[in-house]
Design goal:
- The protein is an alpha/beta fold.
- It folds into three domains: 7-53, no CATH class; 71-101 and 373-457, Aspartate Aminotransferase, domain 1 (Alpha-Beta Complex), CATH 3.90.1150; 124-357, Type I PLP-dependent aspartate aminotransferase-like (Major domain) (Aspartate Aminotransferase, domain 2, 3-Layer(aba) Sandwich).
- The chain contains 17 helices and 18 strands.
- It has helices at 14-23, 71-79, 104-116, 129-140, 145-148, 159-174, 189-196, 216-225, 248-260, 279-282, 284-291, 323-341, 347-357, 359-390, 399-402, 414-422, 444-457, and strands spanning 7-8, 28-29, 31-36, 39-44, 47-53, 86-87, 152-158, 180-184, 201-205, 207-208, 213-214, 231-235, 264-269, 296-301, 313-319, 407-409, 426-427, 433-435.
- The longest helix has 32 residues, at 359-390.
- The protein is globular, with a radius of gyration of 25 Å.
- The two termini are 50 Å apart.
- The relative contact order is 0.14.
- The structure holds pyridoxal-5'-phosphate (PLP).
- It catalyses: L-aspartate + 2-oxoglutarate = oxaloacetate + L-glutamate.
- It comes from Citrus sinensis.
- One of its GO terms (biological process) is amino acid metabolic process.
- Its cofactor is pyridoxal 5'-phosphate.
Amino acid sequence: MASTMLSIASATPSASLSMHEKLKGKVKLGSTTNSTAGFIKTKSFGRVSMVAAVNVSRFEGVTMAPPDPILGVSEAFKADTDEKKLNLGVGAYRTEELQPYVLDVVKKAENLMLERGENKEYLPIEGLAAFNKVTAELLFGADNSVLKEQRVATVQGLSGTGSLRLAAALIERYFPGAKVLISSPTWGNHKNIFNDARVPWSEYRYYDPKTVGLDFEGMIADIKAAPGGSFILLHGCAHNPTGIDPTPEQWEKIADVIQEKNHIPFFDVAYQGFASGSLDNDASSVRLFATRGMELLVAQSYSKNLGLYAERIGAMNVVCSSSDLAARVKSQLKRLARPMYSNPPVHGARIVANVVGNPALFDEWKAEMEMMAGRIKNVRQKLFDSLSAKDKSGKDWSFILRQIGMFSFTGLNKAQSDNMTNKWHVYMTKDGRISLAGLSLAKCEYLADAIIDSYHNVS
Ligand SMILES: Cc1ncc(COP(=O)(O)O)c(C=O)c1O
């Protein structure tokens, strides 16, 4: 309960009068704008400043936040008791039995770590050196000139999200007023990240609902029209939520426009190895830009490709035009990280360093990743086959096969997505995205029935 408070109005309500009496001199004057039983909101200098409270919690003015559009789906799924329920909301890999999966290489790396009896001392602010080395090599390729010339500032981050947030803080501090352009649509958290970092953003066209494909002309036009020196956020591979990636030729053209306009490419790589099953193929967009000698930012995540969701392991890489600049940028990234979280966690970093740094484990990882990517490809094919066989309307579902990665963007609108959940117990995000990583071959026919019903019977 509140014991002190602040602003008392000239027309003081009785509840506040009693508070006034209780506080005896702890009250200062302000301009009251409204009052409800027990507390008063005051406005001064244009802000809603404080709440005066009597026998009321100091948190009375805090409103209920809406559930997260992605993680909230999992909460709703847990509460559903229907046996047919399917969670296709969160992008997390499941086995054919729809169980979470811990990779064998991760277990092996953890055993090695236990055998070595490693300690739990703090990491440096920039993270584990062995992790930072392998993560940059995995991304750019070990013999890339950007690494040989020491032009990359790499710091370990709190997975993809934390790495993006750190970069957003760097943009806010060193590029005040610069805009970040994000694709429309994009992963829901991008907007939150830039909003919270107070970085202005706007959208570029990406998805064409008519073709359920890439609106390449729109994308290029919007990147061209952005103020010179903007940050262009690009999904390195397996675009989330659409599963639609530019072709290699289109990537070249995107790089041309970004170079012409002196923009700064900012890659979000959350699915390296998961899109195609090949770590090198999935990094080709980033490598293309780096090979052109461009300065760029790249956030990495090991949530999906190593299944390390809860370990919060990823990295922020800033490619600069000289090693001196890279050293300066790195020092500032550390300076930003220190008051936010001080230093990153060690466990996931050691797992990645052990897997990527050990040739035998690295090969095993690649095989396991191919297996996971392959299972997703199989359910994608089976879903397409089931839809095509069951839907007699002649609708072309082949866009599902052209999409890659964990997701399929079904083109279902909000009302149709609601029908999927309310009638069919299929949990998915309201933008029509389904995670194929949460689907089994056995459930494809059921899902196809749900999609066909929602698509044709709900407007
Ligand atoms: C496009 C994209 N970026 C970043 C992330 C970050 O995930 P995490 O913070 O778990 O690494 C995700 C996860 O779904 C994603 O889809």
